[in-house]
């Protein structure tokens, strides 16, 4: 990176990371489609690097109709076959089935709770109970959210996957203490209207 801004260490490890770090990662999100997209992308990331997923994100968006929950929930064997032949995405059949399953579970959750956001934001950790940034990969809330989603039939929603989801969707501010974005995210979280 050519500027002199101090970022989280991971943000300078790949050419496309600084923009993602500065403009997306950690800003609070209440939009169901964006939350669902992130849950899906975290599913595909399981066992892989985020760089791989970020590089293919636009391909994923095209293949999964911009992660429209209702459209993905209707995917059938023909759609699955197309996805398995799509070299632009991660062609893992278990993960593809998980995303389709989770779209159906998301529909159920929206019908019951009013929105995905309303359910997911209940698991926002108390900032005063969290250890310093960049020191953990799970928290008690991500563990509980994982258990609760699994009980509701969701798949590929382990505590580490959900902690990464919480970090990126602004449920916690895990920017490093020295990172110039930490204060920006604090402001955004204070101004954010919880669903």
TrEMBL record:
Q: Which domain of life is it from?
A: Bacteria
Instruction: State the Gene Ontology BP annotations.
Output: base-excision repair
* UniProt-listed SUPFAM superfamilies: DNA-glycosylase (SSF48150)
What Gene Ontology molecular function terms does this protein carry? DNA-3-methyladenine glycosylase activity; metal ion binding
The residues that the entry says bind Zn(2+) are 8, 21, 175, 179
By its UniProt entry, which InterPro entries does this protein fall under?
A: Adenine_glyco (IPR005019), DNA-3mA_glycosylase (IPR052891), DNA_glycosylase (IPR011257)
Keyword line: Metal-binding, Zinc
What is this protein called in UniProt?
Answer: 3-methyladenine DNA glycosylase
Please report the organism this UniProt entry assigns to the protein.
Answer: Marinomonas ushuaiensis DSM 15871
Native organism taxonomy: Bacteria, Pseudomonadati, Pseudomonadota, Gammaproteobacteria, Oceanospirillales
């Amino acid at each position: 990176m050519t500027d002199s801004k101090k970022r989280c260490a991971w943000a300078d490890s790949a050419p496309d990371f600084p923009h993602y770090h500065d403009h997306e990662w950690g800003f609070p999100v209440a939009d169901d489609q964006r939350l669902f997209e992130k849950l899906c992308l975290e599913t595909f990331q399981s066992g892989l690097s985020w760089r791989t997923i970020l590089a293919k994100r636009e391909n994923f968006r095209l293949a999964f109709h911009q992660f429209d929950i209702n459209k993905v929930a209707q995917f059938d064997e023909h759609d699955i076959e197309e996805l398995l032949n799509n070299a632009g995405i991660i062609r893992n059949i278990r993960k593809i089935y998980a995303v389709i399953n989770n779209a159906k579970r998301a529909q159920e959750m929206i019908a019951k709770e009013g929105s995905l956001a309303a359910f997911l934001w209940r698991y926002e950790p108390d900032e005063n109970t969290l250890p310093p940034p960049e020191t953990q990969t799970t928290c008690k809330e991500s563990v509980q959210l994982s258990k609760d989603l699994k009980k509701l039939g969701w798949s590929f929603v382990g505590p580490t996957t959900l902690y990464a989801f919480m970090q990126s969707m602004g449920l916690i501010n895990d920017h490093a203490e020295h990172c110039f974005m930490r204060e920006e995210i604090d402001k955004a979280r204070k101004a954010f209207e919880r669903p």
